[in-house]
Amino acid sequence: MTLSMIVAMTRDGVIGRDNGMPWHLPADLAYFKQSTLGKPVVMGRNTHESIGRPLPGRRNVIVSRSLRDAPAGTELVPSPEAALALLADAEEIMVMGGGQLYGAFLPLAERLYITRIDAHIDGDTRFPAMNEQDWRLVSEQHRPADERNAYDCRFQVLERIK
């Protein structure tokens, strides 16, 4: 099993504001879909609520201590460890936020899919600090801003140096 995380962040590491994403980039949404389709996704309760529905074509696992029942089309676990146990047979697990889950899973992650948004955008949630020297860049694709995507961005895949 490969434990991966997928995140979009600004230059300053901002990943969210008011339990949502403070930008709308169709190119990033397409990258997210392409990267996660067919794989289990793990998210916190707030992330699930901000999306409002299970993501189709993926096994949806919510980590929450406060939810009593799993929303339709999802599976509910009480901890990051329980999510890993539930998905132990998966080829690749995609952690998709929010901030608390990124913090819990970053020390264990082997691969990062990062959309780096070339902008300063106000937010209240940041990606946890990481030592860039622990990671090597495997691939990178630049996506210039256009009429539908307000910001330049880079799609990067990083793998932990073992």
Q: Brief overview, please?
A:
This protein is of the alpha/beta class and 162 residues long.
Would you spell out the secondary-structure blueprint of this structure?
Elements (H helix, E strand, L loop, with lengths): L1 E9 L3 E3 L9 H11 L4 E4 H7 L8 E4 L10 E4 L2 H7 L5 E4 L3 H7 L5 E7 L7 E2 L8 E9 L9 E8 L2
Describe the protein's architecture and organization:
There is one protein chain. This protein has 162 residues and is of the alpha/beta class. 20% of the residues lie in helices and 33% in strands. It is built from four helices and ten strands, in the order ββαβαββαβαββββ. Strands 5-4-3-6-1-7-10-9 form an eight-stranded mixed sheet, with helices on both faces. A two-stranded antiparallel sheet has the order 2-8. α2 (45-51) links the parallel β3 (41-44) and β4 (60-63). It is an enzyme of class 1 (oxidoreductase). GO terms for molecular function: dihydrofolate reductase activity; NADP+ binding.
What is the class in the CATH system? Alpha Beta
* Oligomeric state of the chains in view: single chain
Largest sheet: 8 strands, mixed
**What is the name of the CATH superfamily?**
Dihydrofolate Reductase, subunit A
CATH topology-level name: Dihydrofolate Reductase, subunit A
Using the alpha-carbon principal axes, give the shape.
globular
Q: At CATH's second level, what is the architecture?
A: 3-Layer(aba) Sandwich
Radius of gyration: 15 Å
User: How many domains comprise the coordinates?
Assistant: 1
Estimated share of beta-strand residues: 25-35%
- The end-to-end span amounts to 15 Å
Q: What topology, given as strand order, has the largest sheet?
A: 5-4-3-6-1-7-10-9
Total beta-strand segments: 10
Catalogue the unreliable spans.
Answer: none
Helical content, roughly? 10-25%
What is the succession of H and E elements?
A: EEHEHEEHEHEEEE
Mean pLDDT: 96
The helix tally amounts to 4
